[in-house]
Design goal:
- The chain is an alpha+beta fold.
- It has 6 domains: 194 residues, 3-Layer(aba) Sandwich (Rossmann fold); 112 residues, ABC transporter ATPase  like domain (ABC transporter ATPase like fold); 119 residues, Ribulose 1,5 Bisphosphate Carboxylase/Oxygenase (2-Layer Sandwich); 107 residues, Orthogonal Bundle (Helicase, Ruva Protein, domain 3); 69 residues, no CATH class; 77 residues, ABC transporter ATPase  like domain (ABC transporter ATPase like fold).
- It is 33% helix and 17% strand.
- The chain contains 28 helices and 26 strands.
- Strands 5-18-19-3-20-21 form a 6-stranded mixed sheet, with helices on both faces.
- α18 crosses α19.
- GO terms for molecular function: ATP binding; ATP hydrolysis activity; DNA binding; nuclease activity; zinc ion binding.
- Its main location: cytoplasm.
- Keywords: ATP-binding, Cytoplasm, DNA damage, DNA excision, DNA repair, DNA-binding, Excision nuclease, Metal-binding, Nucleotide-binding, Repeat, Zinc, Zinc-finger.
- This is UvrABC system protein A.
- InterPro entries: ABC_transporter-like_CS, P-loop_NTPase, UvrA, UvrA_DNA-bd, UvrA_inter.
Length: 804
């Protein structure tokens, strides 16, 4: 008989106090309580960790070596556990190539769709490009015959270095006595014996046949010659008018008949910006490039060029003398003073320094050289250096901008010229999810069936697709529509599919993963969600609850760590963890339905749910200082030329539905503008006309959802800077002064200082267990204190630094 509960006995993870819990299965369960009371310790560090660990241990030892194995949680017994999936608030990816489309796999379906149903166009002239058949090519040649001689060539070498003697000899052996070598038509044996530059690119075409002017040829003969040329030219032929020199190329693959431009055959990998086949060659598929910023290269206009105004030149290792001598040479030639502050030199003269003097030659160190400019020299150094230090240093003088080659679309021009219903794959991923859904419903209809035109059965009047293309579109498009609908259901219809996953908030990233799980159709799974309603407008909250309920109705157990009242009210069962936070929490204060929790006088959550306790609105509001900061003409992303006046000296709230532009207005425009003004930040603010009132403030601090710890050694004391003051305090202790201890002696990060070198200041030692999880044991040398005995002997008020 299947167990109806997840039974937990003796859970002691973190601050949990040996608790026993029975969690109903196949229900929507909410775990609530004060921050720090132990909710996540129960849901994630106990249930999820044990579920994952048991599943991974069921795999072979070979498979386990590739997985990050979980530690066994501190719990006596757990029964009724299923495989667990956690959907937390962490950002889904730190990879700049990861987008909403790739995370949800919608982009994979779009790649297949465009490869099978897309219509290639020439990126130069816009003409539709199709594979040409032998019959089509023969007909064109037949129509081109006239009074002039028409030469039929088979291209065998295109822009390749070498002498190509073996290719020429093979042509001669095959009976072809004439070739066109680098545009010159000569005898094949002459081409074999002629002197060639092996280091240069060469073109070689073999003459298959010469159609004489004024003569008539049968269709069969023309077709036979064309077939012979195609076979020898690997599907490519060229016809040349011997009198005018006009030529035209043909291909059995995709090639524009107007421009002669060969295009790649559409296939899924061509539409991937992670593949060299389709990615923009200039930005390698990132959609943006790092470019040197003159304001960062010369940050201090009060310095002269002699004093090192060009900051990278003064910092990066290199021959400083040669740089100054070059500047001196350029300065004398163009009358640019090197001993005058940069801010007093005219823009035209500084442009000479920054951007160079074109092809003008200078005699320098016995050589004739050109001066490309400071920016071009630094960019070349960035491209060619093997030093991580130099590369990192130069990146400090750069900013990110849209790739000029692809305008941020990540793909090559030939790929962007392949369309469905006159839209490229870049056009579609740049549309909001709701609009993409409407676009495909226009092609497929809401029932998922391809829409047919009334006048012609095989022609879709809405999309312009043929009948065969519609059959492909119908199957793949149905999957795309289903996933788009899931994103809309979780309140993310405003996102675009090309939105970088790195820019998603924690709540958005969580809901993207939730939508992906809806599409998986799994059942019998335990889903654990971490505050999915965070950052969500009440308008979208009901829709989110319905989505989570759908996940549960698939036959899954859904456990939600949540504070939201609507989510608690909608739950089948609620656990209230408390009564306090940290060491004062870790107990189950109340459990039951929301109605039962309301009646429990020991539950703080119940008191607020029942209305016995409320958060009173303030009776008085701050008057502020009468000043304001004004954003004028904000047009970034979806903002419609917005003007906002924000009063200073008050607590100001910016609210609105998800995707309305709150973060764009405050973080992307105001925050980045102020950071650039006060701290010379490299990030550029979103589009706007101006910011007024900056003179009324002297500092800006942006607090977002980014994690604060950058290394495993980070802790609240090191992050806030308190630990620096503690270390300085211990250096003033008489015992520390007597031993000449400095602040570095009290750091557990400094090698050779006062840390325990046995565990490198970690306090624990890792023991690798091969195919089992690594075991961490307390360091036997320092007993987990992280410091050596010499440092631990220094006391302040009877406590050493480890006690603190």
């Amino acid at each position: 008989m299947p167990q109806e509960y997840i039974s937990i006995r003796g859970a002691r993870v973190h601050n949990l106090k040996n608790i026993d819990v029975n969690i109903p299965k196949n229900k929507l369960v909410v775990i609530t309580g004060l921050s720090g009371s132990g909710k996540s310790s129960l849901a994630f560090d106990t249930i999820y960790a044990e579920g994952q660990r048991r599943y991974m241990e069921s795999l072979s030892s070979y498979a386990r070596q590739f997985l990050e194995l979980q530690d066994k949680p501190d719990v006596d017994e757990m029964l009724g556990l299923s495989p667990t999936i956690a959907i937390d608030q962490k950002s889904s990816s730190h990879n700049p190539r990861s987008t909403v489309g790739t995370v949800t796999e919608i982009y994979d379906f779009l790649r297949v769709l465009f490869a099978r149903a897309g219509r290639p166009h020439c990126p130069k002239c816009g003409a539709i490009v199709q594979e040409q058949t032998l019959e089509q090519m023969s007909k064109i040649v037949e129509g081109s015959l006239g009074k002039d001689v028409l030469l039929l060539f088979a291209p065998v070498v295109q822009k390749q270095k070498g002498e190509h003697k073996h290719v020429l000899q093979a042509a001669l052996n095959a009976g072809f006595t004439r070739v066109r070598y680098d545009g010159l038509v000569i005898d094949t044996d002459e081409a074999i014996n002629m002197r060639k530059d092996k280091k240069k690119d060469h073109d070689l075409d073999v003459l298959i046949f010469a159609f004489q002017g004024g003569q008539s040829y049968s269709k069969d003969h023309i077709t036979q010659m064309m077939k012979k040329a195609l076979e020898y030219g690997n599907g490519f032929v060229t016809i040349v008018n011997d009198e005018t020199g006009d030529e035209r190329s043909f291909s059995q693959s995709f090639m524009c008949v107007n421009c002669g431009l060969n295009l790649p055959k559409p296939e899924p990998r061509l539409f991937s910006f992670n593949s060299p086949y389709g990615a923009c060659t200039e930005c390698t598929g990132l959609g943006e490039k790092l470019v040197l910023e003159p304001e960062l290269v010369i940050p201090n206009g009060r310095l002269t060029l002699e004093e090192g105004a060009i900051r990278p030149w003064s910092k990066i290792a290199g021959n400083q003398t040669s740089y100054l001598r070059m500047l001196d040479l350029i300065g004398k030639k163009h009358k640019i003073p090197l001993d005058v502050p940069v801010e007093k030199i005219s823009k035209a003269k500084m442009d000479v320094i920054l951007y160079g003097t074109g092809s003008e030659l200078y005699s320098f160190d016995g050589q004739e050289i050109v001066f490309p400019g400071v920016l071009a020299q630094l960019e070349q150094k960035y491209r060619e250096t093997d030093s991580d230090y130099v590369r990192s240093e130069l990146e400090g003088y750069m900013r990110r901008m849209l790739c000029p080659g692809c305008s941020g679309k990540r793909l090559q021009p030939a790929v962007l010229a392949i369309t469905i219903a006159e839209k490229s794959i870049a056009d579609i991923v740049n549309m909001p999810v709701e609009d993409v859904k409407s676009f495909f419903e226009g092609i497929l209809g809401k029932g998922g069936k391809a829409v047919k035109g009334k006048k012609e059965e095989k022609q879709n009047l809405i999309s312009g697709l043929s009948g065969d293309e519609l059959l492909v579109t119908e199957r793949v498009g149905k999957e795309v529509c289903a996933r788009l609908a899931q994103l809309t259901e979780v309140g993310l219809g405003y996102l675009t599919l090309d939105r970088s996953a790195m820019t998603l908030s924690g709540g958005e990233a969580q809901r993207v993963r939730l939508a992906s799980q809806l599409g998986s159709g799994l059942s019998g799974v335990i889903y654990i969600l971490d505050e999915p309603s965070i950052g969500l407008h009440p308008r979208d909250n009901d829709r989110l609850i319905q989505t989570i309920r759908r996940l549960q109705e698939f036959g899954n157990s859904v456990i939600v760590v949540e504070h939201d009242e609507a989510m608690i009210q909608a739950a089948d069962y609620v656990f209230d963890v408390g009564p306090g936070a940290g060491e004062y929490g870790g107990e189950i204060v109340a459990e039951g339905t929301a109605a039962q929790i309301k009646k429990n006088k020991h539950s703080l959550t119940g008191l607020y749910l029942s209305g016995d306790r409320v958060i009173p609105l303030p009776k008085k509001y701050r008057k502020g200082n009468g000043k304001s900061i004004d954003i004028v003409g904000a047009t970034a992303f979806n903002l419609q030329n917005v003007n906002v006046s924000i009063p200073l000296g008050k607590l100001v709230c910016i609210t609105g539905v998800s995707g309305s532009g709150k973060s764009t207005l405050i973080l992307d425009i105001l925050g980045k503008s102020l950071s650039k003004h006060f701290y010379r930040a490299k990030e550029y603010p979103g589009a706007h006309k101006s910011i007024k009132g900056i003179e009324h403030i002297d500092k800006v601090v942006a607090v977002d959802q980014s994690p604060i710890g950058r290394t495993p050694r980070s802790n609240p004391a090191t992050y806030t800077g308190v630990f620096t003051a503690i270390r300085d305090l211990y250096t003033e202790v008489p015992e520390a002064k007597m031993r000449n201890f400095d602040a570095g002696k009290f750091s557990f990060n400094v090698k050779g200082g006062g840390r325990c070198e046995t565990c490198a200041g970690d306090g624990v030692r890792r023991i690798e267990m091969q195919f089992l999880p690594d075991v961490y044991v307390e360091c036997t040398e320092c007993r987990g204190t992280r410091y050596n005995q010499e440092v631990l002997e220094v006391h302040y008020k009877q406590k050493n630094i480890s006690d603190i």
